[in-house]
Design brief:
The protein has twelve helices and 13 strands. It is of the alpha/beta class.
């Protein structure tokens, strides 16, 4: 007689060298409802931060031009214009997901919204996951003010976790390292002797869990056909990410003994891009736009995979910190139009200054600011889209089931007027669309918390379902 197999939410495939690969959320991991109701996904909350602001003149046009990267999310998220922030990078960054001024350079005026949701949703105050809070992204300006790049704060206003800035390190942190495969992270000894490039391409952390994979995707496991296929797709995706993080191009083949194998590329690309922090207000590195964007998208994919494996349910990503100044170079496409970012030799931070608080007259600084806004939004959108690519047993994506709050530190230049935010539907709690509101940032964050079921009074209700 065929029975329904149940799996713990913490079920993993374990291999050699302590490698443990989480499985995606399967229907067998959720309790059956006596009333036939759809399974309820876990409570999750993530902050997605863009440093430097989204100029109001671009916001008012809608999800076009510099805001085009957000257009694919128009039916999946609510975007809010008109929020009044404090202005200035330090204050704007400190307030971004807290709504209160910092107490000092290292302590915020309270917890961030993701932390409040976590402590409200889970009796112990933290989610029952291996990693309580995970952060990843790119930033450059390393000053003595962590609020510029930290976007999750605990009940005491202290950073909830550290920030990983290298896609390769994020992958190895979450999924381990293959013997002879990816380069060992700093301070971690290699697990096997050096191998040739071809051998590395054929080596994966998945090689250590093949027998378990074969069991879970066979009839002996008693998992549904849909769950078996989901496991196979999930592990294929891990192999793809493993190689992307290592800077390897893949040609996926079928019918082999491996879960996914690749052929040696004719011209392997350089290692995946990672940001390098520096001290000072200016002097940011010249950065090839294609490297920045492609590297960030790998980071976003690895981060979303960690969520799909239920390694963490709370955290944040950051695409440049408040006040970062980079000089982008090379070709880039803005709303379908190719541009040459090398035309502007002024860094992103200084370009905002040149644009000013009232750029209605146009000019080159406004044009360049539009290019950078598009680029940063493309990176932030990749996080939301990566979360949207994972479907859960209730028939909705991780993005749709989770509270994902996109935000920035400023409006136009260093002005706190019309700071731009967006949030996912969070299980139907918020309505997709574009909303114009009037009110302070704290009122907005309080309204979001009320929409999530936390106590309080919502003064902005247009986007609450």
């Amino acid at each position: 007689m065929k029975y329904r197999h149940t799996l713990s939410r913490r079920t993993v495939l374990r291999g050699a060298c302590g490698i443990a690969i989480g499985l995606p959320l399967l229907e067998e991991m959720l309790p059956e409802s006596a009333w036939g109701a759809p399974p309820v996904p876990p409570v999750r909350a993530f902050n997605v931060f863009l440093g430097g602001g989204v100029p109001a003149i671009f916001q008012q046009a809608g999800l076009v031009g510099p805001l085009t990267p957000l257009a694919p999310l128009a039916s999946k998220m609510a975007f809010v214009r008109g929020i009044q922030g404090p202005g200035g990078h330090p204050a704007g960054a400190a307030n971004a997901f807290v709504g209160k001024n910092a107490i000092n350079l290292t302590t915020m005026g309270g917890p961030s919204i993701d932390n409040e949701i976590m402590r409200f949703a889970y009796p112990s105050g933290t989610a029952p996951t291996p990693v309580p809070v995970q952060a990843a992204g790119y930033y450059y300006k390393f000053l003595d003010d962590p609020s510029r790049w930290v976007k999750s704060w605990n009940a005491q206003g202290q950073p909830s976790c550290g920030l990983v800035t290298d896609p390769k390190v994020l992958f190895s942190t979450l999924f381990g390292q293959a013997p002879g495969g990816m380069t060992a992270a700093a301070g971690i000894p290699a697990m096997a002797p050096q191998m040739t490039a071809d051998q590395k391409l054929e080596t994966s952390i998945l090689d250590t869990v093949v027998s378990q994979y074969q069991f879970y995707t066979s009839s002996a496991s008693n998992l549904s056909a849909g769950s078996q296929a989901k496991i196979a797709d999930h592990l294929d995706a891990i192999r793809q990410l493993e190689n992307q993080a290592a800077g390897v191009s893949l040609v996926t083949q079928s019918g082999s003994g491996k879960l996914s194998v690749c052929a040696t590329p004719t011209a392997p690309p350089a290692g995946t891009y990672a940001s390098v922090s520096h001290d000072g207000a200016g002097g940011g590195p010249a950065t090839l736009a294609s490297d920045f964007v492609s590297g960030f998208k790998v980071m976003a994919d690895v981060y979303a995979m960690g969520v799909a494996c239920d390694l963490y349910r709370f955290g944040y990503t950051v695409c440049c910190c408040a006040g970062d100044g980079l000089v982008f170079t090379g070709p880039y496409t803005v709303a379908g139009q190719p541009v040459n970012l090398s035309m502007n030799t002024t860094d992103t931070h200084s370009t905002n200054h040149e644009m000013g608080d009232d750029p209605t007259g146009g000019g080159q600084p406004l044009t360049y600011a539009g290019w950078y806004t598009h680029l940063f939004l493309e990176c932030c959108a990749s996080v939301m889209q990566a979360l949207d690519s994972y479907m859960e047993p209730n028939g909705q994506s991780i993005l749709a089931n989770s509270f994902v709050l996109f935000g920035t530190d400023l409006g136009t230049n260093h002005n706190g007027a019309s700071v731009f935010y967006g949030m996912s539907q969070a299980g139907g709690k918020f309505k997709p669309g574009i909303y114009d509101v009037t009110g302070q940032l704290l009122d907005f964050l309080t309204s979001c918390k009320v929409g999530m079921g936390l106590p309080g009074t919502a003064t902005m209700t247009s986007f609450i379902a």
